[in-house]
Amino acid sequence: MKLVCIECGKSISYDNFSYYCECGGLFDIVQDFHNHDAERLKRLFNERLSERMTPYASGVWRYKELIFPELPEEFIVTKYEGNTGLYTHQLIQDYIGMRKIYLKAQSENPSGSFKDNGMTVAVSHGKSLGYKKFTCTSTGNTSSSLAMYASIGNSDSYIFVPNKDISMNKVLQTIAYGAHVFSIPGTYDDGIEFLEKYSEDLGLYVCNSINPFRIGGQKSIIYEIAQYLNWNLPDWIVVPGGALSNATALGKGLHDLFTLGLIDKLPRIAIIQAEGASPFHQMIDQKMKELIPDGSPYTRASALNIGNPPSWKKAKHALKETNGITASVSDTEILNAKAIIDRSGIGCEPASAATVAGLRKLVDQQKIDKDETALCILTGNILKDTDALKEYHSEDNMVATFKNTLQATSLDYKTIQNYI
Ligand SMILES: Cc1ncc(COP(=O)(O)O)c(C=O)c1O
Ligand SMILES: N[C@@H](CCOP(=O)(O)O)C(=O)O
Fold first, then answer.
1. What is the mean pLDDT of residues 364-374?
2. Is residue 396 over pLDDT 90?
3. Of all protein residues, whose CA lies closest to atom 7 belonging to ligand 2?
4. Is position 104 within any domain?
5. Which ipTM value was assigned to this complex?
6. Closest ligand 2 atom to 139 CA
7. What average pLDDT does the segment 59-71 reach?
8. Which domain does 348 fall in, by range?
9. pTM
10. Could you say which of 47, 162, 353, 359 is the most buried, measured as most Cβ atoms within 10 Å of its Cβ?
């Protein structure tokens, strides 16, 4: 395994760690898989499904050979992340207008979001380098995840969160896990800029998506989906786009699976952004060469409130390699899709619902055929933003069919029977 700059191609060793090359390009992990045999890997990954209380019980470390083979086991900080549910639901299929849709509930991860798949690897790598202080800037999920792993690994976390437009549930979760939290006047983008400048001098190991080990861990999401589906992936993988770590990771994971012969066809990736924070979609849609950062992003799906996604070049590469597409959706479309996902019993936070909203739009626009198959990555848990639930389910907003909060005037058999 080595780190290679995506701009100038310079390579460095993974233990001589850096996020950016001197030329300003981000580093990417490059691995040599030529000694692997697909059938042997499948057997190994299947055997590990019965592991309990070893690192290989984790839905990330099950694939250690493809993620971080060099890491000595003693450094692994895990909470048996991954192993999340894969669902289908008629309500969602009808809403989108496709016959077969899968939902991968990364919301079931230990800290409630997909970040855990990447964070276990980043924190383990940091520990192997001797770091005891970890940091990130965050709209709340990266921070909850980092705070949890730092505490499990007996380390400290220092976290920078915007002082507005984020979910208090996530900040409280971060604080409760024991992080040192700085509430900052600015957005995620300002926080990243600060950490790019000062983290090294402050002796902090950065766990945001500029860290290629975070991305490396998130590749496991697509490995796990492929394994659960017996190495036959759907036609489309649909993912919400903010900082673009997940789109990048899924693209890399798909590349690995295809190169290794574990799958014989590459699915296409669809990246869905919220209209109010969609610089990547705008770049692709308007066929621009470079991304133009949005200085004041805003969407109610606060996890997507990112105007200058650090990984946009990596995500562009993933999109090209998978012949992918992008779309943007309004907050109303996101919240209505979320209501359907919640009603199906699966549930998610607003950002995740951009996938279902976007897929519906792409099917309406006939950019995706209704007879194709698709999988939406549900990135965060329904309880991550309880204000969003309160706002949506207030009397005025309630979708008629969901009026299920009944005001029983009296608690007796006859009154209740009337409702049932
Ligand atoms: C719940 C949730 N969904 C989606 C995203 C966007 O993912 P990415 O930043 O990898 O594009 C985030 C934050 O990044 C998130 O917290
Ligand atoms: N929504 C994210 C934004 C941070 O992105 P990252 O991938 O750079 O950590 C969050 O949860 O903070």
1. 98
2. no
3. 209
4. yes
5. 0.99
6. 12
7. 98
8. 86-112+214-398
9. 0.96
10. 353
